[in-house]
Amino acid sequence: MKIEPSVSSRFTWPLQAAGQIPAPPGPGNLPGASNQKLTPIPYPAQSGFRSFKRGFTLIELMVAMAITTIIVTILISITSMATDTWNRSRAELRASRQAKAMVDTMAHDLESLVTRRGNSYEWLSAVRSISAGEVPGDKVQSSNYSKLIFFAGATDRYDGNIGNQDATKGKKDDGGDVSGVAYKLFYKDPIDKSVNIYKTFVFNRLLIDPKPAFNDLLGKADLDVAFAPYNTKLEEQSAFVCENVYQFTITFHVMVSRVTSAAGVTPVVTETISVPVTIGKSTTWPSVSSLKIKGTGVVTDPVRPAGVATGTLKVDNVTGAELSAGRVVAVELSITVLADSAIDQIRRSKTALTDLKTSDLLVKYGFNYSKRIQVPSL
After folding, report:
1. E strands of the chain, at which residues?
2. Rounded to the nearest 5 degrees, what angle is found at the Cα of 147, between the Cα atoms of 257 and 151?
3. Largest Cα–Cα distance of the chain, in whole Å?
4. What is the rounded CA–CA span in Å between residue 124 and residue 254?
C-alpha cells in the first residue's frame, strides 16, 4: 500500500537532512511502526523574523557628493580651457585675415611703384606726423603710423574697367596707367565717422585714377600739399581696407654705394650696402619722421640711430649725402592687429590706459605680422 506524505511533512523536509527529525512516512517507515509522534516544526522563513532594506549612511553620501564635485570641477575646467582656446584661435584667424587684406593690398601697389630720376618731382612721400589730432586713438594711441602717398601701376584703376570706353557699362577708361595711391591709419567708426560708439583703428586706401593723378599729383614738388584736396576722400567709407590695425611700421631698405679706400689710393674701392630706415619709432634700425623719394634722390630728415633721441647724419658710417644718392630696393611692413575683445576693452574704459595696461593688452590680444616687398627702382 502506498502512503502519501501528510500535509505536515512540508514543514519537516528541510530538517530531515540535518538529522533533526525522523524520516517522513514512506516505504519501510509506516506510521504506527513506532510510538514516536511527529511534531511539525515551522520553516525558518515562517518564523517571526522581519526583513527590511538597508539605506545610505551620511558618510557614504558625503563621499559621493565629494566625488561628484571633483568630477564637475574637472569638466568645467576642461570646458573653460577649450572655450578659451577656441576664442583665441578665432581671434587669431580674424586678425590674420585683417593683416592679409592690408599687407596684400600694399604689396600689390608697392610692387608696381613708379619713380623717375633726373627731375625735381616727388614720387613717394612717407610722413609720420605727431601734431595734435594726427595720432590715431584716444584712450590708447597708436605707437607707429605713417601717411603714405606714391605712384603705382595699379590694376584696379577705373574700378577695374581697363579699356572700357562705354560709360554705360561702368567707369570709363580715360587713359594712362600710372595711378596715385594713398594710405593712412585712422581711429573712427568704419562705417560712419560721425558715430563715436564703435570707434576702432581703421586702415584706409585711396586710389586716384590716372587722369586726375596726372592733373593733380604728377609733376609736383610736394605730394603732401598736392594731395590736400583728397584728404576727405581718404577718410570715407569707400576707402576702407581693414580694421583693428593698432600700428604699422614702414622700413625702407636703401641700397647705398660708398668708397671704402683711402683718399688718393688707387684703385678706388666701393661697396654696396643696404641701409634700413624706419619711419617713426624703432628700437632696432635707424629711424626718421619722413622719407621722400624725389627725382634727385632719397630725402630724409636727420637720421637717428636706433635708441638715440637726437641723431646724426651718419648711420653705419653712411653719410646723408651717400644715403640721398642711394635707391630704395625693398619696403618692409610690420603691423600689429588687435583682437575684437581688446577693442571692446578700450571702448569700455572710462580713462586713458596706462603704458603698463597697454602693454598687457598687446601681449594678450595683439598679433604681429610682417612682410618684405621688393620694389622696382631706377
Report:
1. 122-127, 147-152, 179-188, 200-208, 240-243, 245-259, 270-279, 287-288, 290-294, 297-300, 327-338, 366-374
2. 65
3. 155
4. 14
Low pLDDT (below 70) residues in the chain: 1-53, 132, 260-271, 283, 285, 303-317, 378
- The strand pair at 200-208 and 245-259 is best described as unpaired
Given a contact cutoff of 8 angstroms between Cβ atoms, the answer to whether 110 and 375 are in contact is yes
pLDDT at 324: 83
State the distance between the two ends of the chain, measured CA to CA, in whole angstroms.
137
Q: Can you tell me the distance from the alpha carbon of 66 to that of 62, in angstroms, rounded to the nearest whole number?
A: 6
Instruction: Give the sign of the dihedral formed by CA 153, CA 157, CA 160, CA 162.
Output: negative
Report pLDDT for 13. 45
Question: What pLDDT does residue 10 have?
Answer: 47
373, 332 contact by CB (below 8 A): yes
- The owner of cell 594726427 is 134
Decide: 123 and 293 in contact? Cβ < 8 Å: yes
pLDDT digits (tens, 9 = 90+) for 47-80: 555 555 677 888 989 999 999 999 999 999 999 8
Cell of 333: 611692413
Contact indicator for 150, 125 with CB cutoff of 8 Å:
yes
The residues facing 337 across adjacent strands are: 245, 367
Q: Half-sphere exposure of residue 288, counting CA atoms within 13 Å on the CB side?
A: 25
Q: State the Cα–Cα distance between residues 92 and 337, nearest whole angstrom.
A: 9
Q: Is residue 183 a contact partner of residue 167, using CB atoms and an 8 Å limit?
A: no
What tens digit of pLDDT does each residue of 245-295 get? Answer: 999 899 999 888 877 666 666 665 666 777 788 888 776 767 888 899 999
pLDDT of residue 192: 80
Query: 128 near 248, Cβ under 8 Å?
Result: no
pTM: 0.74
What is the residue type of 234?
L
| H, E, C per residue of 70-139 | HHHHHHHHHHHHHHHHHHHHHHHHHHHHHHHHHHHHHHHHHCCECCCCCCCCEEEEEECCCCCCCCCECC
Please, which residues have CB within 8 angstroms of residue 222's CB and are 6 or more apart in sequence? 122, 125
Distances (CA, A) of 96 to 84, 103, 140, 204, 242: 18, 10, 22, 17, 11
Whether 185 and 205 have beta carbons less than 8 Å apart is answered as no
